[in-house]
Amino acid sequence: xxxxxxxxxxLAAATDGPVSVSGWVDTVRDQKxxxxxxxxxxxxxxQLVNPRLTDDDGATIANELSDAISGLAQGTFLTATxxxxxxxxxxxxxxxxxxxxxxxxxxANPETPIADDTGVDKRMDWRFLxxxxxxxxxxxxxxxxxxxxxxTYWVENDFVELHTPKLMASASESKxxxxxxxxxxxxxxxxxxxxxxxxxxxxxGFGKIFEVGPAFRADPSFTSRHATEFTSVDSEISWIDSHExxxxxxxxxxxxxxxxxxxxxxAEIEAAFGVEVVVPTTPFPxxxxxEAKRIVAERGYEVPRHDDDMDPEGERQIAAYVKETFxxxxxxxxxxxxxxxxxxxMRHADDPSLTNSYDLIFNGVEISTGAQREHRVDVxxxxxxxxxxxxxxxxxxxxxxxxxxxxxxxxxxxxxxxLMLMLHLSNIRExxxxxxxxxxxxx
Length: 443
Ligand code: AMO
What we know:
Layout: E1 17-30, E2 34-41, E3 44-51, E4 53-54, E5 60-61, H1 64-70, E6 77-86, E7 95-106, H2 120-125, H3 127-130, H4 134-156, E8 160-161, E9 167-168, E10 180-183, E11 186-190, H5 195-200, E12 208-216, E13 229-238, H6 243-273, E14 286-288, H7 289-298, H8 312-326, E15 330-334, E16 357-362, E17 365-372, H9 377-386, H10 395-399, E18 408-414, H11 415-422
Parallel strand pairs: 3-7, 8-12, 14-15
Antiparallel strand pairs: 1-2, 1-6, 2-3, 4-5, 6-7, 9-11, 10-11, 12-13, 13-18, 15-16, 16-17, 17-18
Helix pairs in contact: 4-6, 7-8
Bound molecules: aspartyl-adenosine-5'-monophosphate.
């Protein structure tokens, strides 16, 4: 009796003989003389085979096993036992299992609600079925490797991991994108970013910190890169001279993450998505925003003037320029105007209309914002007032700067956006385990 489950990816290296595998039914080919089942688990797929019994006249004799196979619906979870046999003629992994028994753990409904060509919204309704696709499984193994590599980098470099609260008394980014919730007799807000509390770790004397956690934005838009809840990857460091030090940290982290993903999954990613993971060279190109706009205009695209920001098409254009000119997939756009940056960004000493800040663009889309923070409390209060904020409401935050604080800065980065752009996928829904948007709270 075989009781020990073998993962399908380990069958090729296992010796022929009794074996047990567990997974779900991918396909059944119920032929007259022989039945085939392709069984899939989290590590791969294997062919199970059951030659039908025949009588002396060649007629098939039904038995319990063949009946069970005939009745299998796609998606059924089961444990199969049998004899493992290596056979290089078998296309799927060069092994097959001659079935001796099946134990059904969870039968599937025979009608599958989604197919390969189902649109993204319907697939999200049935996300647990959608995630059975090997490609989707790979996305989340890549995510695991990426986060692990980042965490390793932080730990090896003496960063402290934080978990800041997600229930807040005020907004930290824009008041327009704020979720309000009932909180006993009053109101609370869902955290849009760990911004204030990751900064608090600097006067707390922690030096270098990181957090990977949820962030919430009441953003009503239906774009391919916005969610109402996303995983924010944040880091904040003391004793910087300018945002240049933050960009240096940022690019080292990106390199560590991409190297780990390339080493572990490069070949699988190439096979599944047709994409080569490129470990970027450092330093990444850095272009001040004003210059980026000039470059984009020269390419024939005029960024709309209604604000001082770069729009999505401008980001695509500057990324194309950087790719052509430097062969690089990343670019730091620096020195954003104070008018479009939050009050907590430090401004240039010689030109207060500009900030010590940047956006990181990867394959044409913003994945991150970073900055040196204003740590001089009088200047900070002045900047808050200029943005129409009431310093009294921010008093708890301003206190962080009243009892001694080092110069500091950091960044926030959207995890699903990084994955989307790394794998050349067109929608953040594909790289978010369970997407949340204006019309989606289920599953
Ligand atoms: P920002 O608001 O630019 O900066 O957000 C940082 C990064 O978070 C991701 N992101 C989103 N991802 C999915 N859906 C959304 N609605 C969404 N909003 C933001 C993006 C973005 O680049 N506190 C600052 C960061 C800092 O200065 O440290 C902040 O939150 O990838």
